[in-house]
Write a structure and sequence with these properties.
This protein is mainly alpha-helical and 226 residues long. It contains 11 helices and no strands.
Length: 226
């Protein structure tokens, strides 16, 4: 029973983390991707480069700076003080923030590409029908960009599931609080619990295969609709 609990607890926590982080990523990434796709500002590519930093930075570097920001002496500590806590590090909330930062480029890029592929004509047509920019975004741009939104959501969810370095740095490996799948596998290997490590690792391989197949079939599905 204890072995089953040791396996199920990180699975449950990881699914909860990935679900919350993916919703947060879509809320943050969609308007950001729209601005990057439509803005004429010369400095927008600097913003795009900053957003893409987590793709090239070592996870330990990103995790280190997030640990400082979320720690008791950073903005996260001040925010946590509002409800009597000392830090956002080593908490589920901290894991969500870290997962959003680390996963942002994987969600922004496909959504930005989808918005860019729409072009100007559908929006110009909406304008001729007296649709406001906000209405044109919700009624025209967002539905047309749905393949990119789906791809971004899948990539964001999968990246959160598989993230290791960042979650280990800012969350540690606290059972029931921050011990997610990737850190649980690491812990099982360190303590030579090969059966548990193999079960979780095999599950991750299966999940990765499902994600890849889902991406392939969704692209084919949307291609048939065009």
């Amino acid at each position: 029973m204890d072995a089953l609990q040791n396996i199920w607890e990180p699975v449950r926590l990881t699914l909860a983390l990935a679900s919350v982080a993916t919703l947060a990523l879509l809320v943050v990434a969609t308007p950001l991707a729209w601005w990057l796709a439509r803005s004429k500002a010369r400095w927008k590519e600097i913003v795009a480069a900053v957003v893409a930093l987590p793709m090239v930075l070592p996870p330990t570097v990103l995790g280190f700076y997030l640990l400082i920001l979320l720690g008791p002496d950073g903005p996260g500590g001040a925010l946590a003080g509002l409800w009597g806590a000392r830090t956002l590090a080593f908490t589920f909330t901290g894991l969500v923030i870290g997962s959003v930062v680390a996963g942002l480029p994987f969600v922004v890029q496909p959504i930005r590409n989808a918005f860019h592929a729409i072009g100007d004509r559908p929006l110009e047509a909406a304008a001729t029908l007296r649709a406001s920019p906000r209405r044109a975004f919700w009624a025209v741009a967002l539905p047309l960009a749905s393949p990119g939104l789906l791809s971004g959501a899948v990539l964001g969810f999968a990246h959160t599931i598989g993230e290791f370095g960042v979650v280990l740095m800012i969350g540690g490996n606290v059972p029931g609080r921050t011990r997610v799948l990737s850190t649980a596998i690491f812990d099982f290997v360190e303590t030579m619990q090969w059966r548990e490590a193999n079960l979780l690792a095999a599950g991750m391989v299966g999940f990765a295969l499902i994600v890849i197949l889902a991406m392939i079939f969704s692209e084919k599905f949307f291609a048939r609709l065009k």
